[in-house]
Structure formats: structure tokens, C-alpha cells
Amino acid sequence: MRYKFAEIFEQIAKKDKKTVFMTGDLGFHAFERLRDKLGERFINAGVAEHNMVTAAAGMAYAGLKPWIYSIAPFVTIKVLEEIRNDICLPNYNVKIIGLGGGYDYGIAGPTHHAINDVGIMMTLPNMRIYTPGFAEHIAPIITKLNKESGPTYLRLTKAEPLNIKIPQYTSLQRIIRGDKVVVVVLGSIINKVLPAIQGLSRKNSVDLWLVSELPFNLTKELKTSLQKTSNIVVVEEHVKTGGLGDYFQHLLVESKIYPKKYRHLHSRGYISHRYGSRDFYLKENKLDRESLKKELST
């Protein structure tokens, strides 16, 4: 997703001279062209994310449009106080781009994983969160962010390619129509959920929905499907507390929808305390294709 982000962002920044890009010493083999095109509006803040956040807030106060970029936990957990105090409380127009949502950084281990970032950012005032499921959705999201004003967190991942027709972007969208179980997915874990569904023996059983923005509201179509099936599965590469599962349950109660069956498939952290790839962690947490296929077939 970062390559697509760099491509689209360059087009936007060339048109708007107030746009500034700041990186926490990251972007090798992805942002060299962007650096050359933006010149002094491309700032490598170094391994100093706290300073980067506060400097971005100052730029926003002065009327500039800063976008800050680093590994996801380094621009969420590590700098939470600066984001809250300097960006969110005064409601400044700063875009925060975090690379490597979930277990994307694999072997780098827990310090580089972002499995509680959404929950943390959801607690902040004025914050809006974007979690694209497909690389094809980066362009419309970046275009939308450029038009919006206020604090934003964009959670980027590697986004594996899928052999499906990618639908036009909306914040909450139906990917597959079905009539037995509603599956609601947060962001790029869709790249494991879709192959699992395609491997099911019974076709058209899963009504699959992708959430790409938080907070959001239930659509009329989703409410109808939830009431019809009364069988719900929420899937996210995030811990149980504070993510899509928690938020979705509140929406159900507010809408007076009480399903007969509700399952929440989520990250449980580090079960074996061993290091491995993203696929290793997903398998441990039963978020891999085969585990999801088994869960969705029951």
C-alpha cells in the first residue's frame, strides 16, 4: 500500500503547495521520488517521532497541511500524549500515516506490531480512522483525506493481491452477498477472509462486509441482513478490546438488534511467545485462511 500511497500523495502535493510530508526516517525505496519532487516540503524528522508530531501540529496551526509517516506503533502508541495534546484537543489538520497495521512487521516482533492501535486512536477526540482493505482503495481515501480537515489516522498494510473485482470505495461496503451469516471485517485481514469464504462448500452463505472507516453507522442494507440472519461474525487483526468488535456491539445495541449468535475473531496477542512471520502469528491466533474457513463453516 505504501507505494500506491506515495504515487497518489505526490499528485496531491504537487497541486497544493501547503502540503508537507514528514517521515520518521522511513520510506527507503518508496519515497525517493516524492522527496525529489517536494524538495523542502519533504522533511525527514529522524528517529524523533515525538518532535515530528509536535512540529506537525505547529505547521497545522500556521496554516500548512502536514502528513506524518512512520511504522504504525511509532505514530500511535509511542507518541500518544503528543497526538492527544497537540493535535486532537485543538482539532488540528494533521494526517497520521501508520505503516504495518496488525502483524505486518512479522519477525520484527511485538515492538513493531500494531494490534491495539485502532482502539487507542478511537479514544482520542476529533480523530477519524481509515483502514483500507485493498490497495485499490488508497487513491479515493487519500483524495478524501486531502479534502477533509482534522486529525486522521490511516492504517496501511501490505495488502496481498486478490483475484476478485475490487468494488468502488465506500466506508462500509458489501463485498459478497449471502443469506446465512453476516461477516464484518476490519481492513486488510479481508485478504485472509475472502479466500476462506471462497473455499467453503456451501456458496452464497456469507454476507461479507468491509469496514474501512471508524467511526461509522450501520446502513439500512446491513441492518436488514443482520436482522435476517441473526448470525454475526466480526473479524479483525486487532485485540479484543477497543477495536471493531467493541464498536460494532455498541451499534447493535443502539439499533436494538440482538443476534442469536455472535462471534468475535480477533488477535489474542503472543500465544507461544515465539517470533515469526505475519502468517505465523495469524495461524497462532486462528486468523489464517484455514482457521477462518473452519469457523465460518459452522
TrEMBL record:
PANTHER family: HYPOTHETICAL TRANSKETOLASE FAMILY PROTEIN (PTHR43825:SF5), PYRUVATE DEHYDROGENASE E1 COMPONENT (PTHR43825). Pfam families: Transket_pyr, Transketolase_C. It comes from the Bacteria. Gene3D superfamilies: 3.40.50.920, 3.40.50.970. This is Transketolase-like pyrimidine-binding domain-containing protein. Residues 1-164 form the Transketolase-like pyrimidine-binding domain. CDD domains: TPP_PYR_DXS_TK_like.
